[in-house]
Amino acid sequence: MRPLKDLRVTVVGLGLMGGSLALALRPHVAHLMAVDVDAETRQQALAGDVVDEAVSSLAEGVREASAVILATPVHTILEHVADLSRLRPDGCFVLDLGSTKAQICDALSALPSAFEAVGGHPMCGKETAGLGAAEADLYRDQTFVLCRTARTTPAGEALAVALVKAIGARPRFLAPDEHDEVVALVSHLPYFVAATLMEQAAAAARENEHVWPVSASGFRDTSRLSGTSAGMLRDVVLTNRPAIVAQLRRYRDHLEDLVSLLAAGDESEIEAWLAARQREYGVYRREK
Question: Per-residue confidence at 1, pLDDT binned at 50, 70, 90?
Fold first, then answer.
């Protein structure tokens, strides 16, 4: 495996995830380049000493890179992967940060044999976006899913693990389809639950001026994901639609069961339902 200290790394996309990765990774590599189409973001990255260089062209950014990390929305990642074989015919190591994996890993597997490629998805983030929201500790102690592809070699796998550990995250390998099924439940479903709650509350607030003043930390914590970028979520939905739909249908079934339970008004049954979910939350917290 190539030592991290010898790597010339290019991070494509300096939003929250790419910017945070650049901040965490820079002390560990020889040279850090950024590619971002936004001139203000590039200027901010250079002024803040986030990277050594920042360019707008993917071709220029990957020309001399030994490792390329794709940190754009999913559909843009797919476009960049398709461009890499033309822009970098001699190959390089490729890792992505996309929040769905099956389509991306298929695209990575189709790269020429000169490439080494691993799919990735860090299980962290914030509802705020952009380089201004980036922080070097964003990945620390967080799970970072890695997915093997047809272009994953032992050396490439070792490099992916080393990069993940360098930013303080915990690598966990999953198959791409398994990843998409799991995150549909624990990552994507919560976005839609929060968005639906916000829709209902906003409709009520238009009729009742007390809704927002009375809302407190419970509502804020439950609804905050509704502030996530609509463009990012669009890509998530379009590349993981069947799994998300399946989870939404299961969630709907649970809600219908709950409505029936509450309508019946049996005090002991309601308390038992609440206590069971409290125990399940306790198990989750111990596992974390």
Answer: low
